[in-house]
Amino acid sequence: MTNELGRLEDLPADYVAALRERNLVPLWPSLRGVLPPRQPTRQTRPTHWTYADIKPLLLKAGELTPIEKAERRVLVLANPGHTLEKMQASSAMYLGMQLLLPGEWAPSHRHTPNAVRMVVEGEGAWTTVEGEKCPMERGDLILTPTGLWHEHGHDGADPVIWLDVLDLPLAYYLEVSYHLNGARQDTKPGEGQRNYARAGVVPTPVFGRSGRRYPLLRYPWADARAALQSLAANQPDLAHVQVTYVNPETGEDAENILGFHALMLRPGQTLALPARSPAVVYHVIEGGARVTTESQGFDLAPADTCCIPGYAATTLSNLSDTVPAFVFVADESPLHRKLGVYEVRSGDQPSMPSQS
Ligand code: 1HN
Fold first, then answer.
1. Quick check: 78 and 89 in contact, CB under 8 A?
2. pLDDT of res. 195
3. Residue 142 and residue 209: Cα distance in Å, rounded?
4. 142 lines ligand 1 (CB under 6 A)
5. CA–CA distance from 318 to each of 269, 274, 286 (Å)?
6. Contact residues for 75 (Cβ-Cβ < 8 A; gap 6+)
7. Ligand 1: does its nearest atom lie under 6 Å from the Cβ of 345?
8. What residues have CB less than 8 Å from 19, skipping those under 6 apart?
């Protein structure tokens, strides 16, 4: 169906007014807008945020706004395609860079959106999640899933900065976003990390399993990095050297809505990724990477972050010929799979999910 549909202007003004007075709207003038041919309309624009830009402005926020006046001292990485006021990186993803200064405490709360933190810089901070005190070291991924109490503290000497990734825009859109404040948590040492210390071996179900939805809360960078290097060394022809952060008891995605991965680009490697339905965030942990889509290319330095809309074929290139690049990837794939709209395209051919 490519025929032109009737426009609102084609209708008598008094008819449109009569509809509007009764909270009624004709569909056909807007049908192509909400259901465009072949490819969805995306407000998400390819956007690059450099750490060189963010860091001084975030440190300035540390001077301007005490933690008591901020609760969470964050500069939001807002996608201009959604308008900055919406504070979204994509339709479902929120990104923020958070600063905690030595001695500061970001009080305990819990909320409906799911969050993770990817530690960018600094030592001595911790996040306590449901009483489990998780040290924050560079490259660590720490989960604070929906409903779990969490607070941040800092016993070190220098500022600590991390990247927050939340499904806040989705929760807000669904009108389910709210929080509860709590008292400082009593802490116990990292239970999850002692139980799930090695991949491939997990406590036996009848004896040792927690049965918790989130048995592992901290994924140390040293382990993810070692897994990537081992994978790359063992499979020299493997192009997509990537690991996914999962629930070690079930193998399912670590959280319900957003997916989290760590990717290694070999020295000099260029990796062509097909167009997929979810929007994707790339954040460089180590090294440098060029991220290119049809319309744009970004050179990412360490701690730089970019967002690429869904349905956009993307090429990732290591900027170095001598050292690997390590990239943290967050995407909307668990959500898309649950909704049944997950799609990988070859060329620009739609591959809409169907019955067959
Ligand atoms: C939140 O709870 C944190 O706990 C950071 O560090 C950023 C943005 C929106 C809503 C909740 C945190 C957040 C947030």
1. yes
2. 81
3. 20
4. no
5. 5, 18, 11
6. 54, 57, 58, 61, 96, 97
7. no
8. 25, 26
111 C-beta closer than 6 A to ligand 1: yes
pLDDT tens-place string over residues 300-356: 999 999 999 999 999 999 999 999 999 999 999 999 999 999 999 987 788 888 876
Comparing C-alpha atoms, which of 293, 307, 235, 292 is closest to residue 264? 235
Chain position carrying tokens 């709207």? 25
Atom of ligand 1 nearest to the CA of 151: 4
Least confident range of 191-195, 232-236, 328-332 = 191-195
Compute the distance from residue 75 Cα to the ligand 1 centre, in Å.
11
The residues, any chain, with a CB within 8 Å of residue 190's CB and separated by 6 or more, are: 132, 133, 134, 135, 217, 218
* Residue 2 pLDDT grade (very low, low, confident, very high; cuts 50, 70, 90): low
User: Is pLDDT above 60 for 124?
Assistant: yes
User: What is the average pLDDT across 7-32?
Assistant: 98
Alpha helices in 196-309 (DSSP H): 205-208, 221-234
Span 244-249, average pLDDT: 95
R_g of the chain computed on alpha carbons: 22
- Residue 74 CB less than 6 A away from ligand 1: yes
Ligand 1 pocket test, candidate residues 166, 167, 168, most atoms within 8 A of CB: 166
The backbone torsions φ and ψ at residue 107, rounded to the nearest 5 degrees and listed phi first, read: -60, 160
Tokens representing residue 199 in the block: 């991949």
Is the pLDDT at 105 greater than 90, yes or no? yes
User: Residue 110: CB within 6 Å of ligand 1?
Assistant: no
Residues 6+ apart with CB under 8 A from 72: 96, 98, 106, 164
* Cβ of 164 below 6 Å from ligand 1: yes
